[in-house]
Amino acid sequence: MSFIIDWKEDRNLTLLVDFYELTMANGFLKSGVGNKIAYFDLYFRKVPDNGGFCVFAGLQQLIEYLKNLKFSSQDIEYLRSKNMFDEEFISYLENFNFTCDVWSVNEGTPVFPNEPLVVVKGPIMQAQFIETMLLLTINHQTLIATKTNRIVRAAKGRSVMEFGSRRAQGYDGAIFGARAAYIGGCTSTACTIAEKLFGVPAVGTMAHSWVQLFDTELEAFRAWVKAYPENSLLLVDTYNVLKSGIPNAIKVFKEELAPLGIRPKGIRIDSGDITYLTEKARIMLDEAGFEDCKILVSNSLDEYIIRDVLSQGAKIDSFGVGERLITSKSAPVLGGVYKLVAVEEDGSIIPKIKISENPEKITTPGFKQVYRLFDKYTHKAIADLITFNDEIIDDSKPLEIFDPIYTWKRKRLDNYYAKKLLNPIFESGKCVYTSPSVKEIREYSQNEVSNLWDEVLRFDFPHKYYVDLSSNIWEMKYSLLRKHNLKYR
Amino acid sequence: MSFIIDWKEDRNLTLLVDFYELTMANGFLKSGVGNKIAYFDLYFRKVPDNGGFCVFAGLQQLIEYLKNLKFSSQDIEYLRSKNMFDEEFISYLENFNFTCDVWSVNEGTPVFPNEPLVVVKGPIMQAQFIETMLLLTINHQTLIATKTNRIVRAAKGRSVMEFGSRRAQGYDGAIFGARAAYIGGCTSTACTIAEKLFGVPAVGTMAHSWVQLFDTELEAFRAWVKAYPENSLLLVDTYNVLKSGIPNAIKVFKEELAPLGIRPKGIRIDSGDITYLTEKARIMLDEAGFEDCKILVSNSLDEYIIRDVLSQGAKIDSFGVGERLITSKSAPVLGGVYKLVAVEEDGSIIPKIKISENPEKITTPGFKQVYRLFDKYTHKAIADLITFNDEIIDDSKPLEIFDPIYTWKRKRLDNYYAKKLLNPIFESGKCVYTSPSVKEIREYSQNEVSNLWDEVLRFDFPHKYYVDLSSNIWEMKYSLLRKHNLKYR
Q1: Three-class SS state of B320
Q2: Residue B454 pLDDT > 50, yes or no?
């Protein structure tokens, strides 16, 4: 059961926008180019944690933002008070009507550096204005879904619960972070509102304060199982795990639950050496006849610690992961960018490039599509190919792909099939897409990730997945680069 | 001018709560201890980035949350659907009435590990319930104010603008992050809504897309200064800074602004080697007669890069700092905790301790106050002293303070005065405190930080500021520790 509501309806984030989007929009209008049709690509350049891929997330919130985009009378009053904007522009905003086309990758899709994930086509004033919210929404949720996916893979089938709200970066960091974590593979969250809003299962039992409030740990445990006989997960590390917590838990399981014929749920350990304590705990529980009693651990976990303790033989059934997941602590930024790639002049699309002293900051111009190429027999993903939007990949014929930098590195594909990654989301400002539920997105994502080669899934030094340019795109980009280089060399 | 609104009024975050706060609250009620009076401390154990102190922030939002705390009919419906909570508890929530006392440090105050920053006294059901939002609010804003303060100090008087919205962790990460950044010392933000909501000055000019949209960079610059002659800050790195951007900027300044008698505002460089490019840029601008034209830089800056480029002689007037500030990238978590420290039994306050295998996780029990001790002549802060709430520091008499771990390290203070850090915020659920404006908080903070010794301000290996316990607190804690150790050794 879930009470999914449209979070945007009662919340006006229109002015959550970099101020330069406003000065530019006003300037475009003033310069007579406000309605020039422009094309923008949203993409990132680097996978956080030097991982092999990201898990794309945030599209549903992006759609809700764009659907509800309007300027309140308070917004207008504020803008007018800045004494920087023309009345023509203010009146444009008062009657704002979103008319762009938007394409996007599906949420949950594994994605790679330098491929467009969201493409926007529309009047420059509008397409530019939405930059901040597009980036903020996609950067955040994709970051957290990506980190979570690493942590979940480290747990090797054990459940991972998202426990990070209190250390998140702001309220939405917690709320949409819990959503993204579920998409990335968590089984549940401690963040209650994420169940109310999105249907992410919310779970939780007790904190140390429960144990402290009672005169003794034994009394505290007894009170708990009396209140929740079916939900007896006891936190055993308030005083001493092995000498107090677990013996008291076992005593209460035997004295309070056994007579009711109820099996205990589990114990949680939140401090100390996880490997040592869980191995001892398992033995103690088993000897007491509670082989089915689960051991849950928390305390500053991430994919590296989980991998380590499991390889040491720690006896753990599930992980509660907090701050290192909800902030993607070891790599807390996804550097998505949103770049102008083309403009329309007299009905034709003119590719636009941005040069930089840093070669990785040079853009790939043009109005584009992304194809994912799969092996016909293994269904594993082989490569992504960036083409012009109207290029057609005929997968009945062999295809030669090549590295866009080391162009001598070429590969001929025979038994493959191609899938378009960018789907229409808005057409002339009208939403033409329905978001799946987070549960569906989560399942889709797990399936798509399973189509990647193990080499790409590695945490450290993964194999670099191919993201290639079609010959047409490559030639256009190269000729623009040559032209600019000749000018400034 | 600002349009400060109460962000909480149209936004229900009541269920932004760890699920265990709800199971515990219901359990407390069921166990007959729901209205037992409990005392909680909020504090952190470690300064991010191994810095010397944090800048406390977020109190205003905490107050707004507590003032508006209620359960909507939708919240109630959701909770009922979980089939875990008693009707008595649900009815308690339906008629929820916050009755706790709350004390807090003022926003902007430099604060240190292991001292209570927020103290809550009230019925355990309520005092426990608010844990998640208290921590989330204070952890986030304190983290960002702290990071910003480091960056601003590195800039040595040059202005620092907050540019990070697009890479923030969610919408509130951007919005409240901009607020915290201003408290920490930024002069302005790109986040427009932060001006509307809090009065943080919003600024911005152009992105690369402005330059790309026009046929040439020269045309783009000309269109800009025609639209904004008084606000001519030009982004000069779209094609080539020294061969195209700056020469074109100078040309436009001369041809478009000089005839109007207007001086140019500045240029912005967002890529390449900052030291090299700004030194060259300064010479070119000076030679063209634009000595007053400012140079603004951005591109993945933080306190370390700013310190480095300034020490190399880079010619920079102001910094735009994005992702590394708004996520506190190098240390993206403040690990604030909220711990039960006492309960009332028959009218007297019983201190409660939490033991841990990790000694730094052991709590300091008791209902407490924090005094900051200042030198009477230099007005520099000497130490903080944690006392029982009713202890009085008579600063007309000498005072001996001592390290709570290395107790032989003692210091006698003669010429000092003591200030209480914890002030009443709520009394029996009623707010008794009015938040200053962010501008006032920012000024207060700068003054308080200037009262710290330089040794504490150092970025790396700062001197550890003394946070000591009064003899009374120390003796009570030590005796509880001994008692527990005897039990489990």
Answers
A1: strand
A2: yes
**Cβ of A11 under 8 Å from any chain B Cβ?**
yes
The CATH architecture assigned to A19-144+332-488 reads Alpha-Beta Barrel (3.20)
Q: What are the tokens at A11?
A: 């919340």
When the pLDDT of each residue in chain B is averaged and rounded to a whole number, the result is: 95
Could you tell me the two tokens for B433?
């405190």
Q: Tell me the pLDDT band of B3, cut-offs 50, 70 and 90.
A: very low
Of A11, A77, A207, the CB nearest to B20: A207
CB-CB: which of B171, B173, B202 is closest to A19? B202
HEC secondary structure over A84-148: CCCHHHHHHHHCCCCCCEEEECCCCCEECCCCCCEEEEEEHHHHHHCHHHHHHHHHHHHHHHHHH
Q: Is the dihedral of CA A340, A345, A347, A348 positive or negative?
A: negative
ipTM of the complex: 0.96
The CATH number of A205-296, from 3.20.20.70, 3.30.1600.10, 3.30.540.10, 3.30.1120.10, is: 3.20.20.70
Q: Which site among B124, B333, B346 would you substitute to test the A interface, given the most A Cβ atoms closer than 10 Å to its Cβ?
A: B333
pLDDT at B486: 85
Three-state SS at B202: strand
List chain A residues with CB under 8 Å of B228.
23, 27, 84
Evaluate if residue A270 carries a pLDDT over 70.
yes
- Nearest Cβ partner of B16 from A171, A208, A356? A171
CB environment B360-381: b (16+ within 10 A), e (fewer)? ebbbbbbbbbbbbbbbeeeeeb
CB A27 to CB B228 under 8 A? yes
Decide: A182 and A440 in contact? Cβ < 8 Å.
Answer: no
